[in-house]
Amino acid sequence: MAEGESTPTDDLRRKFGKVSVSGGSKGRSPASFNGGYQSSASSASSTQGLPASDWALTRGQNSRQFSNWSLRSLEEGDDGDDLVGVAETARANGGTLLSRDQREAVRFSMVRRKKDFKHMERVDGRWINVLEGLELHTGVFSAAEQKRIVDCVYDFREKGRNRQLRERTYSEPRKWMRGKGRVTIQFGCCYNYAVDKHGNPPGIIRDEEVDPMPPLLKSMIKRMVAWHVLPPTCIPNSCIINIYDKDDCIPPHIDHHDFVRPFCTVSFLSECNILFGGELKIMGPGEFSGSTAIPLPVGSVLILNGNGADVAKHCVPAVPSKRISITFRKMDDGKLPYKFLPDPELQNLHPLPYPPRKSTVQQAANQRSPNQQQITPQARVLGKHMHDHQGQEEGEIAGRASSSPFNLGSDDFPPLGSSSVNGRSNKPSRSLWR
Q1: Are 179 and 172 in contact (CB under 8 A)?
Q2: Which of 12, 111, 259, 357 is 20 to 30 A from 241 via CA?
Q3: Higher model confidence: residue 193 or residue 347?
Q4: 41 alpha carbon, distance to own chain's centre
């Protein structure tokens, strides 16, 4: 390379001056995005020049465009490894970098969704599918985003241990036996798991206060609504973080109806099984028996609704290694804490439009004039990412199929837009994904 010639990594350093690109070090500590409990100059400066609102809707438009707020909020302060990966992609494709809009378009199109869980059980004299209403979404959060979320959760734990959170926000019981001692952190409302020392029954305690939803967790909610994981009609306003050590568990239960359906849980650090069934048996400390086990991959989002939320009980047996889960739920309007105020950032969220049936590469080419009908470097990079990732995910899904009771295959996670509307299929042609 000629002296003085800039590399893609150099360009990234200039563009993201607040982030270290070498050595995988972080440009921001978790405290700068851990819920507003601590701020830093870097996080403050990183917001300069950004739109005032998360969503930009041009006057007169009927559909929202990719505004990439969800990537911006989770990707700000990208780890050096992320930027090096982007730089390597740029170097391999003639120095062309993907824009945030392009990156979001690619990732949104590659979210995989399984919605056909089925297990028949006899309930009240009739056979029903007790797993109806369950959905499993993968590819919603990248590995780097998961790391930032996990770092943030551990920062919450430290603040809880140092009494920097409200009393009912943080709970760390004594580990007196196997399966007991799971750390919980609550935001939005105080949920009582059992009758407490004051005689409060299980459910939301309306006169107790906990800390409000931190910004990073709100960004997760926005991402899930935007990417068609959570419906905009049921936006969560509370959450519970569970921090598991080895052998910690969650016993069989049905979530309290102080929370409306659907709700979801996001898994981090390690994969584990969640058991479902009309009757789940307790075999011993942390050991349960159920009719159906569903593996929860790292970074996956499990949606609970319908029979899967209200007929079947669920539990998490003693986990084999450290795990974190974040459960997001919307409170029933009649059970809101007395001092609860709706968060303006979580109002009027809308899902992004589904990816167009025409490939992004074709669109980029069609946008050029008739005399310039050639694929741009940006479109070529975008198409390469979509093709490579699709092949990788199909291989991973096929590898898991042999050991899964649900016989997962590539068709279980169809591309977005494959559902039928008014009897017509919107599924893209196979050529778009091969």
Answers
A1: no
A2: 111
A3: 347
A4: 27
Q: Is 423 left (phi over 0), alpha (psi -120 to 50) or beta?
A: left
Contacts of 396 (CB under 8 A, 6+ apart): none
CA angle, residues 130, 233, 156, in degrees to nearest 5: 85
Mean pLDDT of 126-133: 97
User: Has residue 83 got a pLDDT over 60?
Assistant: no
List C-alpha distances in Å: 42 to 30, 31, 74, 214, 426. 12, 11, 15, 18, 44
Please report the pLDDT score of residue 91 as a whole number.
Answer: 55
Rounded Cα distance between 157 and 250, Å, is 19
Residue 238: strand pairing partners: 329
pLDDT in tens, 301-325: 999 999 999 999 999 999 999 999 9
Task: Give the residue from 125, 129, 128 showing the smallest Cα distance to 117.
Answer: 129
Q: Which of 415, 420, 406, 394 is nearest to 117 (CA)?
A: 406
Q: Which amino acid is at 159?
A: K
Average pLDDT over residues 177-187: 86
Q: Long-range contacts of range 383-391, CB-CB < 8 Å, 24 or more positions apart?
A: 383/359, 384/93, 385/89, 385/98, 385/106, 386/106, 386/109, 386/110, 386/359, 386/360, 386/433, 387/433, 387/434, 389/106, 389/110, 390/110, 390/433, 390/434
- At residue 356 the predicted structure's pLDDT band, cuts being 50, 70 and 90, is low
Rounded to the nearest 10 degrees, what angle do helices 377-401 and 100-109 cross at? 30
- Per-residue pLDDT tens digits for 275-284: 999 999 999 9
> Among 21, 17, 25, which residue's Cα sits nearest to residue 46?
17
Amino acid at 155: D
For residues 73 and 218, give the distance between their C-alpha atoms in angstroms, rounded to a whole number.
9
- Is residue 154 helix, strand or coil? helix
- Do the Cβ atoms of 238 and 331 come closer than 8 Å? yes
pTM to 2 decimal places: 0.67
pLDDT at 197: 81
Mark out the alpha helices in 3-97 (DSSP H runs).
8-15, 41-46, 69-75, 80-92
Residue with tokens 């350093």: 13
